[in-house]
Amino acid sequence: MAGSELLLEYLSRYFPILVFVFVALAFGAGTLLISYFVQPKYPEPEKLSTYECGSEPFSDARMPFPVRYYIFAMLFVIFDVEVIFLYPWAIVFNKIGLIGLIEMLIFIGLFLVAYVYAWRKGALEWD
Amino acid sequence: MDHIFFFYFAAVIAATSLLVVALRNPVYSALSLLIMFFHVAGLYVTLHAEFLAAVQIVVYAGAILVLYLFVVMLLSIKSEERYHSQLPVAGLLGVMLCTEVILLFIQSRTGAAAPAAADPIAGPGNTEMIGEALYSTYLFPFEVASLILLVAMIGAIILAKKDINEPVQ
């Protein structure tokens, strides 16, 4: 049972995160529930329509998005992955010293090439 | 006691994975995929892989899922009705995978117990060990990863940018 106790002790360090998760869930669910119980309900057909004033929607809102949104999602993924590599590097920076710095400079240098490419090709512009 | 966490995470992962393929609205599928990513991160935490759990949340739940949602919205898929003709192939693959899983399960029951993991509390941190390995032993794959990401970015720009050959003013 020693392994089980060890795991429990280890997982108990994640208890604050668990509390945060429950607070987040309870805030979302609680707000909806309280407003559902507290709000006055006078359902009328005019009030239940999509817009009480203004024109009715005449087509579906889910139309195809322009493909240029895809560039931004892709750039976000790529730079997100780059930042992920910085975390273990920052933690072991004192141990690996100058070689680690050079490694990371090469790594970021290649990303700089990608960034300059995106900039020069106008991928960061909207029009 | 320590099986409770595993069974909770495994059950939610299995259920939400089923929902990803079973739900008709692709946006709901993506959102159940989000729940699955969070529970996979929880499973990593119980396996003492904290760094992987953080990567799971930051990269998969944060970035990859956004990419999936963008693709759903770019293609404007309202409801998927097309995959019923794939039933024979999917059934065959499913039977094969189930046989494999059952065989693995039987073998793992008779096999030796897994070696005990290092002390997760007193030992060096997970991220620290990954950093030491990544920036010394696996230096070359690390730099190659940067190159692959560069290629991915150029590919995405070429695919999505229409007026790629026109100079920018």
User: What is the residue-mean pLDDT of chain A, rounded to a whole number?
Assistant: 84
User: Rounded to an integer, what's the Rg of chain B over CA atoms?
Assistant: 21 Å
User: Which percent bin holds the helix content of chain B?
Assistant: over 70%
Number of helices of chain B: 6
Q: How many discrete structural domains of chain B?
A: 3
Largest interface: A-B, 54 and 55 residues
Looking at CATH, which topology of the largest domain in chain B would you report? Four Helix Bundle (Hemerythrin (Met), subunit A)
Instruction: Compute the number of strand runs of chain B.
Output: 0
What structural class is derived from the secondary structure elements of chain A?
Answer: mainly alpha
Taken in chain order, the helices and strands of chain A follow as: HHHHH
The biggest beta sheet of chain B, please?
none
Give the biggest sheet of chain A.
none
Q: Give the terminus-to-terminus CA distance of chain A.
A: 64 Å
List the helices and strands and how they pair.
The complex is a heterodimer of chains A (127) and B (169).
Chain A: H1 2-11, H2 15-38, H3 45-48, H4 68-91, H5 93-120
Helix pairs in contact in A: 4-5
Chain B: H1 2-22, H2 26-46, H3 50-75, H4 87-110, H5 126-134, H6 139-160
Helix pairs in contact in B: 1-2, 2-3
What would the keywords be for this entry?
heterodimer, A: 127 residues, mainly alpha, 0% strand, B: mainly alpha, Four Helix Bundle (Hemerythrin (Met), subunit A), globular
Could you walk me through the main structural features you see in this protein, from its secondary elements to its overall organization?
The complex is a heterodimer of chains A (127) and B (169). Chain A is flat, with a radius of gyration of 26 Å. Chain A has helices spanning 2-11, 15-38, 45-48, 68-91, 93-120. The mean pLDDT of chain A is 84. Helices cover 71% and strands 0% of the residues of chain A. Chain A has a single domain, classed as Methane Monooxygenase Hydroxylase, Chain G, domain 1. The longest helix of chain A has 28 residues, at 93-120. With 169 residues, chain B is an all-alpha fold. Chain B is globular. The N and C termini of chain B lie far apart (65 Å). Classes of the chains: A mainly alpha (127), B mainly alpha (169). The interface between A and B is large, with 54 and 55 residues.
